[in-house]
Amino acid sequence: MSALITVDLVTLDENLGDDRFAVIRHLTGKVVDAGRATSFDDLYRDAEAREAKTDTGIPGGIAIPHCRSSAVTEATLAMARPAPGVSFGAKDGPADLIFFIAAPDGADQEHLTLLSKLARSLVKKDFVAALRSASSKQEIVELVNSALGVSSAPKAEGATVAAAAPAEPSESAGQRKRLVAVTSCPTGIAHTYMAADSLSQAAEEMGVKLDVETQGSSGNEVLSQDVIDAADAVIFAASVDVRDRNRFAGKPVVESPVKRGIDEPRVMIEEALAASENPDARRVSGSRAEGSSSSSDDGSWGSRVYRSLMTGVSYMIPFVAAGGLLIAISFIMGGYEIANNAQDILGIKDGVVSGDGASLFHPGDAGLWQYLAAVVFVIGSQAIGLLVPALAGFIAYGMAGRPGIAPGFAAGLVANMVGAGFLGGIVGGLLAGFVAYLLAQPKLPRWLAGMMPVVIIPLLATLISSGLMFLILGQPIAWIMTVLNDFLMSMSGASAVILGLVLGAMMGADLGGPINKAAYLFATAGLSAGTDVSKEIMAAVIASGMVTPLAMALATTVRRKYFTEAEVSNGRAAWLLGASFISEGAIPFAAADPLRVIPSSIVGSAVAGAICMGSHVGSPAPHGGVWILFLVENWPMYLVSVIVGAVITAIVYLVLKRIGNATSGQEKVGETAAAA
After folding, report:
1. Which helix (H) or strand (E) holds 603?
2. Which of 146, 342, 427, 571 could form a disulfide with 165 if both were Cys (CB 3.0 to 4.6 A apart)?
3. Does the pLDDT at position 297 exceed 50?
């Protein structure tokens, strides 16, 4: 840290032109000449790409361009005081104090710490005035190192250090605000961790103590109760219901979908800080946040219903995956006819094993292998049979907390009984959750309140929601499901291609969001029927969902010069994510460049879906990407659809980048040199 900035990295009172990128090129050259970076082109490309995303000018005539780059060998700070000043996008005019932070690729914490310390020092008027009045490069070095709290080499003779140079702002633990946050998304694969990182980085920049709990699938970081109790406010960046939210009871809360934690982390933190000072702010109770909602937090019923639906889908997916894969394995073991023979082999009558069938030690005429295949099929069928009850139960849980689980499961079972399918499960879950939520609202005597969540609410909510489903709602919904199923069964030729186009476009539209999940739910709900059409729909959905992350991986490989090192790294990871049917692998690209990525994704994914449906590709498994290739019917066309869709998406994306003049730093350097 003592050599973070040296006199060789300082430029004073030179005319660097009127283009911010010319200043960045100049400072990039300083870093390379000082031996702090291995490649001018790579460092400039990364710095330019970062600057193109967000203006780095701040009020007061200051700019802080910065980047992470694999070309940087050690964290470096270069500084320019150009004459005249150069605009970096600040509303109050050009910047005449410009600090360029170059950090090694992967040194996120060091990068953010430097940026935060420097930014907080630059809001001090005395410090800024000292920088503007400094007469030598050595004096600049002394001022900056003092502000960053690091030692410097001895001053050159005659250099002075203004007494106004501030140390790191002192703030006692009692004065510093403490926040906690929970992030979660329907699949718990990508959004959960991206939101956690965004909030943590923003808090570091703002000087706020923030601890984050991730409730995802790739490892959870659980907050201790002591940390929660010490917090001034809570942030829920969650698109599914927060687990064990009673731990946060009584805390002021800001609650929004998980994507807002990625897009607006600083705003959410500011809202949480404001809520901590507001006695009328929304507060967390055991199953919901209650109190007056702030203008920034969507406490509407529409938001509640959306989060509840996403909660139901999130908890339903493991039932589908386990049951669907077990059924697929049984088909491999015993052939597709096992679906018709399993109950006879096992002696199952009216849903109960009668004892008249085969057993492990007496497999009978079927043989041991067919017996085991029948067992696997029945287990898978039982698991996937819980799809609708699990969907309904956890929708109700998302709306009313634990008191909603039993009524929701009961409503889902009734929906299955009357043939209302997954639509009935959605309606029954929402109805059960709504009734349970209303029953929890009245303030009751303590002796009665204790019985409500365990006895009274489940009893009444189950009776009302399941009664309405059985007596009134079930048959109309069952009729809709019958019409829909008959329509799908009749599809062939051009109609199947159109359906594939629609499903593919839905899978590519928001990459793990509600539109994507709606298409996936539509496919998995029909899979239990075991029909050819249902398997073709499932295959089309899986193939379409693989397209975009594979396309981003392909684009970063064939046109690396268009992307930053961080994007290239994301592209490498996207190969595996795409191959595994994890659409969220493309989210880093969609978040950074949605106007190019999303249209490209929709086009390529729609083509993949159409090819699958038109070629009658079928998958009995609900997940797995390329890893279920041995299960897929007409697997060559399955691969063709994925490859063609990915290539089309990559081409469209790169063409849109070219049309939008999203050229690389290397190209712009060459253009500038040619012009000179």
Report:
1. helix 594-614
2. 146
3. no
Mean per-residue pLDDT, 157-166: 38
> pLDDT digit string (tens) for 455-506?
888 999 999 999 999 999 888 988 887 776 666 556 555 678 888 898 899 8
- Whether the pLDDT of residue 171 is over 50: the answer is no
How far apart CA 248 and CA 215 sit, in angstroms, is 15
Closest of 551, 547, 527 to residue 631, by C-alpha: 527
Query: Taking the alpha carbons of 229, 233, 237, 239 in that order, is the dihedral positive or negative?
Result: positive
Write the pLDDT tens digit of every residue in 360-387. Answer: 888 878 788 888 988 988 888 888 788 8
Known catalytic membership, residue 66: yes
> Is 362 an annotated catalytic residue?
no
Which of 26, 185, 612, 623 is catalytic? The answer is: 185
Query: Mean per-residue pLDDT for 253-277?
Result: 85
Mean of the pLDDT values across residues 165-178?
Answer: 48
User: Taking the domain 7-148, which CATH number applies?
Assistant: 3.40.930.10
Pick one of 3.40.390.10, 3.50.50.60, 3.40.50.2300, 3.40.50.1100 as the CATH number of 178-299: 3.40.50.2300
CA–CA separation, 273 and 254 (whole Å): 10
Residue from 66, 111, 191, 623 carrying the catalytic annotation: 66
Domain chopping of the chain, boundaries: 7-148, 178-299, 303-486, 491-666
Q: How would you class 142 by CB atoms within 10 Å of its CB: exposed for 0-12, middle for 13-18, buried for 19 or more? A: buried
